Amino acid sequence: MSLASKNALITGSTSGIGLSMARALAKEGVNVTLNGLGDKAAIAKLVEDLGKEFGVRVFYSDANMMDGEAIAKMVHDAEKNMGSVDILINNAGVQHVSPIETFPIEEWNKVISINLNAAFHAIRAVIPGMKARGWGRIISTASAHSLTASAFKSAYVAAKHGLTGLTKAVALEVATHGITVNCISPAYVWTPLVESQIPDTMVARNMTREQVINEVMLERQPTKQFVTPEQVAGCAVFLCSEAATQMTGSNLVVDGGWTAQ
Fold first, then answer.
1. Which residue in 54, 156, 188, 226 is the catalytic one?
2. Considering the domain 7-187+228-251, what is its CATH architecture?
């Protein structure tokens, strides 16, 4: 089964893992709707360049991932622009590092909204169309923290554990409709999100930048290497392929051996 002419909506895809996923799917001939933050002119150029490089149609939505109505509208607009949303990738994510007793309530709400609630709203909106067509692929970027925990990341760990539960529940609901629902759980991937965690972690743990990287981020990763965005994107393409037709409700772990310990 070729993915050519399928249509994908990827949240949090103007940089990092999401952009790598967009590029990997576009290379397979998939039309893409991007979503995320960034300079408007830079995003416009990204949309144009991605379309030209791979010969696919590329669109962009600036929908706020904390607004359920905006997310539903993003899905509707993507269906209108592309004709359908065959592939949904919930990739938008934020992080906040803080001891629980001083964890800002507004940051808790933000992390839960963007990492978990946004996936619910997007999945809820795409399912009717996928059921009508009898085919769909829903993938969520979870984390090694969907299976284990780290101190000072209560909101993120809670959201990612919730995301795997959501994945399993929806997979069971749509299992007879030609729709698969899975998540990918990478360990630390060198992205702007990971880099932005370093200053807060330095403060929370009273460490230097180098100590945070080697003693916190890579300490539990046996390979002692960051996962690359391209490696995660390759997993997403696989989950959309014919070979993964019987994979649903799964959590595909890409963590350098972290959770094997």
1. 156
2. 3-Layer(aba) Sandwich (3.40)
